[in-house]
Amino acid sequence: MADNQEKEITNVEASVLNTYSKAEHYIMNNKQTVTYIGTGVLVLVLGVIGFMYWKSNREKDAQSKMYQAQLWFEADSFKLAMNGDAAHYGFKKIKDKYSMTKAANLCNYYLGVCYLRTGDAKQALALLKDFSTKEEMTQGQAYSMMGDAYAETNDMKSAIEYYNKASETVDNDLFTPFYLLKAGMAMEHEKNFKDAKQAYQKIKDNYPSSQAGRMAEAYMARCEAQL
Questions:
Q1: What average pLDDT does this structure show over 136-144?
Q2: For residues 47-63, b (16+ Cβ closer than 10 Å) or e, as one string?
Q3: CA distance 174 to 212
Q4: Distances from the Cα of 58 to the Cαs of 69, 101, 110, in angstroms?
Q5: For 3-57, how does the pLDDT look when each residue is reduced to its tens digit (9 = 90+)?
Q6: What's the pLDDT tens digit per position in 72-91?
Q7: d(C-alpha 114, C-alpha 222), whole Å
Q8: What are phi and psi for residue 69, nearest 5 degrees?
Q9: Please, what's the largest Cα pairwise distance for the chain?
């Protein structure tokens, strides 16, 4: 038994040494190729590190440039927020200059809202469709804004779809009942009183303490009268 184990160990050692010898032989006979490969890998690694550093700095720069535009946005100065002034960038310029950054993606949201608030629903839709985030509150708001934009273009079917998407993306007492309320009202506009009543029922059942929840029974009664 011991002799067999020793033989197995000896065979393994011989195999390892043989493999190492072959590798060493290959390297010695292909020095130039191995050198090129090693240099190529090093250049690639350094390139990736350099790109990540450049991308990080570019992201920070873009975020700092957005500060004034965000202040204008919060003050409802939408045209200034979009276009900027002589001293500060607006969202349009930030989006163009810092493409492929998180800041540029966020500019799609801001610009979409700005266009919606200044009467250009079609342009608002184009920009909001280009926006996406894993942050549920902001994504839900974007869907709701898309619903508003579709409603502005009299595409109520799509408006209802996006109000429902907004309500499914966010789950809290402030925004979710508001999105369901907008969906219900859009359904009423389309004379779909049965589905509108169901939307209001969801508000009553799941968000009774919200402002919409306190009015839900009245909305439901209004729909019931039409059925």
A1: 96
A2: eeeeeeeeeeebbeebb
A3: 9
A4: 17, 8, 19
A5: 444 544 444 454 544 554 555 555 566 655 545 555 555 445 444 444 343 456 7
A6: 999 999 999 999 999 999 99
A7: 34
A8: -60, -40
A9: 95
Q: Which residues contact 180 (CB under 8 A, 6 or more apart)?
A: 163, 167, 199, 200, 202, 203, 207, 212
CA angle 34, 38, 43 (to 5 degrees): 145
Per-residue pLDDT of 142-176, as tens digits, reads 999 999 999 999 999 999 999 999 999 999 999 99
What one-letter code names the amino acid at 19? T
